[in-house]
């Protein structure tokens, strides 16, 4: 079954075993496509995977380390076809990922995201409260992953309002004015996890804001949240207590697989959409591990076509805690994210202490 | 922010001291230098050797065993004779005075080699220990403290640690006659701007790269035991300091037809690593895998094999600056070589150690001569990459750590 057909099924409903067979065929087709058009990909397949683009099983399917997007230009379309370059929001001084998207892949990304979001929001566009500042997408120099993320999500809402001011300060008036107009019926909220917590929840202490008709979708790293000792459970229960907000969905995605989001389903676990899958690998041997065993997350998705981003080995750790729970129709592997792989340093004669030398 | 300085105490623990007391501690070293190869110096290092080879927590750590052997009394006597042989009639050796040692952060034993040679030269010594004291460095500190106490030689040695921002590098440099700076280019460059005594000498040991040459035909003729032995020696060279020692090989050049010999050796190598329970951190395993993909994707390497988390190997054809592609933690570049001359374009000032297997002395001598003016300062058998020797980076250390009085 191909990508378009898989999108026809209700999102997040194809059972784990079944989807593996369904996506493998198109995955092999895509791999052949990248092999033909993307030279670095071809070199990797030839040099590290025995020269065969594709595999008989999903576990054996070639994967690229996601860090490769930082050092290589990976594109499977001609330069004229590339419509936009997405970049990751790397820390200052670090290399950023560069992802090259043509019109076709852009459409596939939108179709994929629509499939995921309508699952939660319904087919009709809802009024939208963005938990961010409008600057984040208005200012082109800020067109980072965050800006692109906000802009991408805004397509799924209408009558947009922004809960934060230019300096990310809470704009209570903007929120109240939005709620006066839209607060009595379901509305859509989107923001990055840390901003929702620090700039909406923490900054609104002592204020009464009724968000009980809201549907919050949020994403972003949990690193800063861990520093505040806030996990998904705490996040949800505190937001519910404060705002009456009960429909909260986290998702896991990355700029290298834009459009494909692993969405929070039963028991706070994250589920890949129908055209997508997750494999957990041992960080040492890189072999797949059984469900329940933590390891590196490999994400597989049919979305990307203008760049070889269909099978990526991330540097995030996770564990599959449930498979095909069936609650409310949710099927597939249920992933819990355990954070980044901790960095160990190799030092030697050539230690670099000059950078802190006075 | 108050800056901290800590001194190595008699029980081997670093004890914080008041910054105001530190100056006098340094001053007391002044004019305490003794004759090269003084009995007390040889006794002190001999005790350290004995402790490293016998003390329960030091015994059996291979780097310590190597250091212990290096400092054993018979070896010290041999060094003394070799040193005496350099003195012509009418020459008397004298120490430079106070030596300041800035060892690297993580090749634990190196500070002892740098210090020990300076001890033999007769200098007073100030050694700046790494800011993070590893378990192995702590054992060395305890051993040294015990030996200093046992021999009563502690008057001319100061082991300390302090903040980078404290300005003490500059203060100590100002009263030093000799400075040994081990580390990256930047560190050597930065420290080098701090003036020494007007007639002082600063020796920098910056970033270096090393590689190996194996004569394929000779390896092919080795029996299994010989192959395993070579793998064992290669293991020491590569893994002792997580392949981050300056002498650790990054590239294996195969002189002659490789066939399946490389696979054979690397399989043996990974088996040695496993038998020694070498542990690869998960993030190191992953970043080596990223590097392998990166080198293949960019066409620098053509193929690659992960022999295990302990060892990734990429295969390349010969090109300049191969050794610049360094990762560490068990990452090798395997490259065929038609003749020894073919390697010359890849050699520059950064090259330090070239370990070899299967080359004959006449070849080696000719090869050494072909390196004149290029780089590459040690051509030694596989297994000796990290063996410290008194001529390091091409510099005769004892000669530089002393002066000569001439009389007639």
Can you characterise this structure?
The complex is a heterodimer of chains A (358) and B (408). Chain A folds into 2 domains: 1-81 and 270-342, Luciferase, domain 3; 124-264, Rossmann fold (3-Layer(aba) Sandwich), CATH 3.40.50. By secondary structure, chain A is of the alpha/beta class. Chain A has a 7-stranded mixed beta sheet, with helices on both faces. In chain A, strands 1, 11, 12, 13 and 14 form a 5-stranded mixed beta sheet that branches. Chain A starts with a helix and ends in an 18-residue tail after the last strand. Chain A is 31% helix and 23% strand. Chain A has 11 helices and 14 strands. By secondary structure, chain B is of the alpha/beta class. Chain B has 14 helices and 18 strands. Chain B has helices spanning 19-27, 39-54, 62-70, 73-85, 110-121, 135-151, 168-174, 185-191, 216-220, 224-239, 261-275, 282-297, 361-370, 397-401, and strands spanning 5-8, 14-17, 91-95, 98-102, 124-128, 157-162, 178-182, 201-205, 209-215, 249-255, 303-308, 311-315, 331-337, 351-357, 378-381, 391-392, 395-396, 402-406. In chain B, the strands form 4 sheets. A 7-stranded mixed beta sheet of chain B has the order 2-1-6-5-4-7-8, sandwiched between helices. Chain B has a 7-stranded mixed beta sheet with strand order 11-12-13-10-9-14-15, sandwiched between helices. In chain B, strand 7 (178-182), helix 8 and strand 8 (201-205) form a beta-alpha-beta unit. Chain B starts with a strand and ends with a strand. In chain B, 47% of the residues are buried. At the A-B interface, helix 3 and strand 1 of A face helix 8, helix 12 and strand 11 of B.
């Amino acid at each position: 079954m191909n990508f378009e057909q898989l999108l026809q099924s209700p999102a997040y409903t194809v059972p784990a075993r079944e989807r593996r067979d369904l996506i493998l065929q198109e995955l092999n087709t895509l791999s052949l496509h990248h092999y033909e058009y993307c030279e670095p990909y071809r070199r990797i397949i030839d040099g590290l995977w025995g020269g065969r683009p594709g595999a008989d099983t999903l576990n054996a399917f070639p994967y690229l380390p996601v860090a490769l997007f930082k050092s290589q230009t990976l594109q499977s379309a001609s330069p004229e076809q590339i419509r936009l370059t997405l970049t990751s929001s790397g820390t200052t001084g670090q290399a950023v990922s560069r992802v090259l998207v043509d019109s076709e892949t852009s459409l596939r990304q939108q179709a994929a995201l629509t499939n995921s979001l309508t699952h939660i929001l319904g087919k009709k566009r809802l009024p939208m409260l963005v938990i961010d500042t409008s600057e984040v997408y208005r200012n082109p120099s800020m067109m980072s992953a965050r800006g692109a993320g906000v802009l991408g999500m805004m397509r799924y809402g209408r009558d947009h309002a922004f809960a934060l001011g230019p300096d990310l300060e809470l704009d209570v008036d903007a929120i109240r004015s939005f709620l006066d107009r839209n607060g009595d019926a379901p509305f859509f909220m989107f923001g990055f996890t840390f901003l929702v917590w620090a700039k909406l929840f923490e900054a609104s202490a002592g204020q009464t804001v009724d968000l009980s008709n809201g549907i919050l979708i949020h994403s972003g790293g949990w690193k800063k949240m861990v520093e505040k000792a806030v996990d998904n459970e705490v996040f949800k229960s505190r937001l519910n207590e404060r705002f009456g907000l009960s429909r909260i969905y986290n998702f896991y995605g990355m700029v290298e697989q834009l459009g494909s989001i692993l969405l929070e389903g039963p028991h706070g676990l994250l589920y890949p959409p129908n055209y997508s899958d997750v494999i957990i690998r041992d960080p040492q041997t890189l072999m797949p591990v059984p469900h329940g065993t933590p390891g590196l997350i490999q994400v597989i998705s049919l979305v990307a076509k203008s760049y070889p981003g269909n099978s990526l080995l991330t540097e995030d750790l996770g564990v599959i805690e449930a498979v095909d729970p069936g609650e409310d129709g949710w099927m597939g592997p249920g992933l819990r994210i355990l954070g980044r792989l901790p960095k160990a340093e190799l030092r030697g004669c050539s230690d670099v202490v000059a950078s802190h030398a006075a | 922010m108050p800056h901290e300085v800590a001194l190595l105490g008699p029980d081997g623990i670093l004890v914080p001291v008041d910054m105001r007391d530190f100056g006098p501690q340094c001053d007391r070293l002044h004019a305490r230098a003794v004759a090269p190869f003084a009995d007390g110096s040889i006794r002190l290092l001999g005790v350290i050797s004995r402790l490293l080879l016998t003390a329960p927590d030091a015994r059996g750590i291979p780097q310590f065993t190597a250091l212990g052997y290096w400092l054993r009394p018979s070896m010290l006597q041999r060094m003394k004779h070799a040193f005496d042989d350099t003195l012509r009639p009418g020459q008397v050796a004298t120490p430079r005075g106070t030596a300041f040692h800035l060892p690297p952060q993580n090749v634990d034993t190196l500070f002892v080699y740098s210090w020990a040679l300076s001890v033999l030269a007769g200098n007073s010594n100030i050694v700046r220990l790494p800011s993070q004291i590893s378990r192995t460095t702590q054992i060395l500190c305890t051993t040294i403290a015990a030996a200093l106490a046992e021999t009563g030689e502690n008057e001319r040695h100061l082991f300390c640690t302090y903040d980078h921002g404290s300005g003490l590098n500059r203060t100590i440099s100002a009263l030093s006659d000799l400075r040994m700076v081990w580390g990256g280019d930047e560190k050597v460059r930065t420290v080098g701007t701090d003036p020494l005594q007007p007639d002082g000498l600063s020796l920098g040991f910056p970033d270096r790269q090393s590689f190996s040459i194996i004569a394929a035909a000779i390896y092919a003729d080795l029996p299994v035991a010989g192959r395993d032995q070579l793998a064992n020696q290669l293991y020491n060279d590569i893994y002792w300091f997580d392949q981050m020692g300056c002498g650790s090989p990054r590239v294996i050049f195969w002189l002659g037809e490789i066939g399946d010999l490389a696979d054979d050796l690397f399989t043996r190598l990974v088996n040695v690593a496993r038998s020694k329970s070498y542990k690869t951190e998960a993030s190191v395993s992953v970043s080596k895998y990223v590097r392998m993909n990166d080198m293949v994707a960019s066409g620098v390497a053509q193929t690659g094999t992960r022999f295990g988390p302990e060892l990734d190997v990429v295969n390349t054809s010969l090109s300049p600056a191969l050794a610049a592609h360094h990762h560490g933690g068990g990452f090798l570049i395997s490259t065929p070589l038609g003749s020894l001359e073919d390697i010359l374009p890849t050699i520059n000032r950064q090259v330090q150690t070239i370990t070899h297997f299967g080359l004959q002395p006449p070849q080696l001598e000719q090869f050494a001569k072909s390196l004149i003016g290029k780089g590459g300062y040690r051509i030694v058998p596989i297994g000796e990459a990290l063996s410290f020797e008194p001529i390091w980076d091409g510099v005769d250390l004892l000669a530089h750590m002393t002066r000569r009085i001439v009389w007639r």
